[in-house]
Write a structure and sequence with these properties.
Pfam families: HSP20. The protein is of the alpha+beta class and 177 residues long. It has 3 helices and 7 strands. Among the domains are: 28 residues, no CATH class; 94 residues, Immunoglobulin-like, CATH 2.60.40.790.
């Protein structure tokens, strides 16, 4: 008796498992179909939601251009707002990789302005927070580079690196005794 009453429910559940939604262009989808998958199925790809668009302002990758000029690599990386003292460039893995690390701190106020505003307004509350971002990018290089001869400059938010390659001897003869 109970199963006869629940038969429509079982039928609906069985049909929902085999349902494949039609593929549509995002422009023609209804608004509910364009919601983030993290909200519809929050645990399907837990770490994937950190890579999605709603966290893009926190987890931003810097744009890098790498050009091979035969005897050297030229790398240009966009780092808007980053100061020289908050930038770290390292060569690792025996000259085969380049690590660029930048920290960005932006405050909505200036230290001197904040002190003068506090003297003027004694009865008002104001909450000001600072925003910090941390960018890390590792680039693997096809040829070993000479870390001692790297030239780096930071102008207008663009880091330019001239990285000379080392001369590879090819094969080395080993004398057997």
């Amino acid at each position: 008796m109970i199963f006869r009453r629940c038969r429509p429910l079982f039928h609906t559940l069985r049909k929902s498992q085999h349902y494949v939604p039609p593929t549509q262009h995002p422009r023609f989808r209804p608004p509910q179909a364009t919601t983030s998958a993290a909200f519809v199925h929050p645990f399907r790809d837990f770490w994937g939601m950190w890579r999605s668009g709603w966290m893009s302002d926190i987890q931003t990758r810097m744009a890098i251009d790498l050009v091979d000029h035969g005897d050297a690599y030229i790398i240009e990386a966009e780092l808007p707002g980053v100061k020289r003292d908050r930038l770290d460039v390292r060569v690792g893995d025996h000259g085969r990789s380049l690590l660029i690390e930048a920290k960005l701190e932006s405050r909505p106020w200036d230290e001197t302005d904040h002190a003068s505003q506090e003297k003027e307004r004694t009865n008002e509350w104001q909450i000001l927070s600072e925003r910090t971002s941390h960018f890390v990018r590792k680039v693997w290089l096809p040829h070993q580079v000479d870390a001692a001869r790297i030239n780096a400059s930071l102008e207008d938010g663009v880091l330019k690196l001239h990285i000379p390659k080392t001369k590879e001897d090819g094969s080395v003869r080993v004398d057997v005794v």
